[in-house]
Design goal:
The structure holds two protein chains of two kinds. Chain A is an all-beta fold. Helix content of chain A is 0%, strand content 45%. Chain B contains no helices and 13 strands. In chain B, the strands form three sheets. In chain B, strands 2, 4, 5, 6, 9, 12 and 13 form a seven-stranded mixed sheet that branches. Classes of the chains: A mainly beta, B mainly beta.
């Protein structure tokens, strides 16, 4: 499986934008890029996913580098509720069987939001 | 607001005892996942069901763990006998395949609140 590399931790001031980086230099052409986050004492929750083009939803934006070797999750205005561990995960579109839905979580980036 | 529910939320038991954790997936979801989270290992996939059939349980210790879906509204994870190293938070997640970006199907996973298990 292609691996992702994320900083262990980041800090942001409340109301400021946050850019969470993810490196995936060995990404294959059929790997989706997923982001999940885990708030304290809760289960992970889906944030966003993409394949080649940048994506926006109500929670965040996903900017994917042209060579797809890196991506950035953008929170436009950080709130205290955004303090969480953010996971960047690759999933092979064409993985067969159970692997086609499996998500392999790494260590993620712990985001702290300063009031 | 549809959610995955898990019971119990907390469980403290003694080594050797049987532990049963239950999960109610979101109504209509046909895929169910069991994960375990520890500080050392992070989140690990234990087992995965689709349409109630087990598709992958390679992450699960076979000798003591078992996962089943008696019906579409209930998934169970049992540990017998439990050991201190099983202490962790166990998450259930459910999902429903949706059209993906590349002509495939994509499965967003919705996680429950977890069961925190402590084996003494």
């Amino acid at each position: 499986d292609a691996k992702t590399t994320q900083p262990n931790s980041m800090e942001s001031n409340e109301e400021e934008p946050v850019h969470l980086p993810c490196n995936h230099s060995t990404i294959s052409g059929t790997d989706y890029i997923h982001w999940y986050r885990q708030l304290p004492s809760q289960g992970p929750e889906y944030v966003i996913h993409g394949l080649t083009s940048n994506v926006n939803n109500r929670m965040a934006s996903l900017a994917i580098a042209e060579d797809r070797k890196s991506s950035t999750l953008i929170l436009h205005r950080a709130t205290l509720r955004d303090a969480a561990v953010y996971y960047c995960i690759l999933r092979d579109v064409y993985a067969s069987g159970a692997g086609s839905y499996q998500l392999t979580f790494g260590k993620g980036t712990k985001l702290s939001v300063i009031p | 607001d549809a959610r995955v529910t898990q019971t119990p939320r907390h469980k403290v038991t003694e080594m050797g005892q049987e532990v049963t954790m239950r999960c109610q997936p979101i109504l209509g979801h046909n895929t169910v996942f069991w994960y375990r989270q520890t500080m050392m290992q992070g989140l690990e996939l234990l087992a995965y069901f689709r349409n109630r059939a087990p598709l992958d349980d390679s992450g699960m210790p076979k000798d003591r763990f078992s996962a089943e879906m008696p019906d579409a509204t209930l998934a169970t994870l049992k540990i017998q006998p439990s050991e201190p190293r099983d202490s962790a938070v166990y998450f259930c997640a459910s999902g429903l395949p949706l059209p993906g970006l590349a002509g495939d199907s994509y499965n967003e996973q919705f996680f429950g609140p977890g069961t925190r298990l402590t084996v003494l």
